[in-house]
Design brief:
Layout lengths: L11 H21 L6 E4 L2 H20 L6 E5 L4 H12 L3 E5 L9 H7 L4 E5 L13 H18 L14 E5 L11 H4 L3 E5 L10 E5 L25 H36 L6 E2 L10 E5 L10 H11 L19 H6 L3 H5 L1 E5 L6 H15 L9
Parallel strand pairs: 2-3, 2-4, 4-5, 5-6
Antiparallel strand pairs: 1-7, 6-7, 8-9, 9-10
């Protein structure tokens, strides 16, 4: 059935389109364990993160008249859409602290606790890292934030509304990588803002969503109509929303079974790659997404000055798709900022390969991938193009 009406109009086709849009929103809300009105559709994960971070900064600027003196915390291993949004917060006058992970890629709650200040207003920690797959302990982090929030409100002795002490701390998470293999119930996470992208769930490109808790206020980023509770101007895509909801439901239905299958394949690939001399696995091996494996390959100048990019092209020529860092950074920096934050030497950050397994990945694919990579490295099959 084709729903061609504008969901903002009042004629029959529009009403049917609006009904479908709200049905999709409600289905996603059920999976998140929240109210449908707490879900805002966006054009994707990047816009959702921007709306969450900069949208809150604009609201805070409007209510406090300035961001001067406000303190913001973000992990140093976030996606560019998060890091660049915090760069905008700095330009607006906010003070931003980048908190580093440990060698496994984990943001430790006790480290965050020491970083929080009375003037802290916002914390952003991605749930599962998009390059190394490390899963952050969001619920524990949320408890640290709420305890700090309570202690700050109890100890503030200022009488002015413009004091530096924050009345509350907003907790945001880029959860793009998580729902594929993690149950996403916002009430159990203690989250205020949660960003999602349909394409990360085998859904359509061009649509994302932002969960906004009822206690959190934002200012819209784009001028225009009053769609999406006045927070996201522009005619909504009914078809993309329906695709988003359907993909999310399928992922939730298959999650437990698929997680077990994919983890077995991933562990097999890890064991095979570790047989290659000098290979290092990046990120935590227990608290990690089951479908992702990030490794550093020792540089081989005889192959190329940029070994990982050479290997990615060589594998691609043989029908194996891998990446060297976040897709948003391909072709830009020569190193992974995520792996760089883990320590372990500059060579590891400059020579990373990320393997992402999916629904169609089989055991024979794993065997072939490891064999091809080994042959290319040993120069038995070293041509970049067939």
């Amino acid at each position: 059935e084709k729903l061609v009406g504008n969901p903002g109009a009042i004629h029959r086709e529009a009403v049917e389109a609006k009904k479908s849009l709200e049905d999709s929103r409600a289905r996603i809300a059920v999976l998140l364990g929240c109210k449908a009105r707490e879900i805002i559709f966006t054009s994707g994960l990047t816009e959702a993160n921007n709306l969450a971070i900069v949208g809150y900064a604009k609201w805070l600027e409007r209510t406090r008249r300035s961001l001067k003196g406000t303190h913001w915390i973000v992990s140093s291993i976030e996606h560019d859409s998060v890091l660049e949004s915090f760069a905008e917060v700095e330009r607006m006058g906010g003070i931003v602290t980048h908190i580093r992970p440990d060698g496994r890629g984990l943001i430790l709650p006790e480290v965050l606790e020491k970083t929080l200040r009375p003037e802290t207003v916002f914390v952003s920690i991605g749930w599962a890292n998009n390059e190394i797959g490390t899963i952050q302990p969001l619920a524990k982090i949320a408890r640290v934030i709420r305890e700090h929030e309570n202690n700050t409100s109890l100890t503030c002795v200022h009488k002015s509304d413009l004091c530096g002490c924050a009345e509350r701390v907003v907790f945001h998470s880029d959860a793009g990588q998580a729902p594929l293999y993690l149950a996403t119930v916002v009430s159990s996470l203690g989250i205020d803002l949660l960003a999602l992208g349909a394409n990360k769930l085998h859904g359509p490109h061009g649509i994302g969503a932002l969960y906004i808790s009822k206690r959190t206020s934002l200012v819209r980023m784009m001028a225009g109509g009053a769609q999406e509770r006045g927070l996201r101007a522009g005619t909504e895509s009914v078809a993309l929303a329906a695709g988003f909801a359907a993909a999310y439901e399928r992922v939730a239905h298959e999650r437990e079974r698929e997680s077990k299958r994919i983890r077995i394949l991933r562990d097999d690939l890890a064991q095979r790659l570790m047989r290659i001399p000098g290979v290092e696995i990046n990120g935590d091996q227990k608290e990690t997404l089951p479908y992702m494996l990030n490794v550093s390959i020792p540089p081989k100048p005889e192959l190329s000055e940029r070994t990982s990019e050479y290997l990615a092209l060589a594998l691609d020529a043989r029908g194996i798709a891998v990446s060297t860092k976040s897709a948003c950074r391909e072709g830009e920096e020569s190193r992974s900022h995520v792996v760089d934050a883990l320590g372990g030497g500059e060579w590891r950050a400059q020579n990373t390969l990320r393997f992402s397994l999916g629904r169609d990945t089989t055991a024979s694919d794993i065997v072939r991938c490891a064999k091809v990579l080994t042959n290319v490295l040993s120069q038995k099959d070293s041509k970049v193009r067939p």
